[in-house]
Amino acid sequence: MTAVAEARDLVAAEIPLPRAVPPVIGMGAFLKNTVTLVDGRRALVSRDVGHTDTPAAVAAMEETARRLIDLAGVRPVAVAHDLHPDFPSTRFAAVLADEVGAEAVPVQHHHAHVAAVALEHGHDGPLLGLALDGFGLGPGNQAWGGECLYVDGARFQRLGHLAPLLQPGGDVAAREPWRMGAAALHALGRGGETAARWPGQPAAARLARMMDRGVNCPETSSGGRLFDAACGLLNVHPVAEFEGQAPMALEKLATAPEVLADGWHIGADGVLDLRPLLSALADCADAARGANLFHGTLAAALAEWVGRAMERAPAPASTIGFCGGCFYNNVLSADLQARLEGKGLTVLRSGRLGPGDPAVSLGQAWVAAQR
């Protein structure tokens, strides 16, 4: 294979960098994994090798990293990876760093997301970032996913997050939105309604007891799980057949978003609490109206939350990046963008790499290169 053919086969995107950096490779996320090598004034982003939950995908990720290094003809000075110690990309980062004599550098998942969208726009300075997705490990081993961050190169500060919900059953809740609906009822003090509300789910009665006792119910600030909670309460695909099925169906139902008055609270600690909205959805018998209430209220709440976060930022920032899989939702993205631009902010939305996890490796490499 010629060098040109090799590059075409391996590289999905070449992105210019705003300034020269030393060679660093980013090993990407667990889902929709890509690998990125930055060097000088360019970033080479590999094709998506898929979810790294199979031996074949892990082998493809490892081969991709080595091929990228060979293609660029450089020796990385750092190998960036996720904070999660059990991700195959994290484990391989340690192996690769040892092979090439580089430093293994952990980069928080949502920090990487924000850095990636900034880089796609050539933004080289402080910015705010809204990261809404399913999961990213926080520095204290928390399950993050609904984050408002201040990002300045290799540093970030968490300015706020969504109020946590329980995730009953752990990861299975991401595939069964009725469980997150039950978590919302629990947060509202209405957990006793769980069994009657989902009579077709054999685990419903047991789930309520699990949440009361805190058994196998980790907390999460995930925006993705908030969407699932809305879907569960509105009975929109209470059990999903594939990833994102329920939230995508909820988006299609939202034809005229509306804002629920007093549908949220923002604490002095920067926590955005949407329990008033969830309470309204729990009592809404019309899924289409519920979808409109959810999208409109969430956009309005996020806009106010960002305004409050700007006051908490360590330095002025008038640019904000949207990132994470929830921003595939165009109803939410467009409404929120209009609200923030109306406040005078510059909004950065993802480009070729999309808002999801394929962009993470780019952000990892860029953050690590600035240390």
UniProtKB/TrEMBL annotation:
- Which InterPro entries does this one have? Carbamoyltrans_HypF-like, HypF_C, HypF_C_2
What GO molecular-function term can you cite, just one?
Answer: zinc ion binding
Q: Short name of one Pfam family for this protein?
A: HypF_C_2
| Entry's Gene Ontology BP terms | protein maturation
Start and end residues of each Carbamoyltransferase Kae1-like domain: 129-364
Q: Which family does the entry's similarity section mention? A: Belongs to the carbamoyltransferase HypF family.
Tell me what this protein is called: [NiFe] hydrogenase metallocenter assembly protein HypF
Give the lineage. Bacteria, Pseudomonadati, Pseudomonadota, Alphaproteobacteria, Rhodospirillales
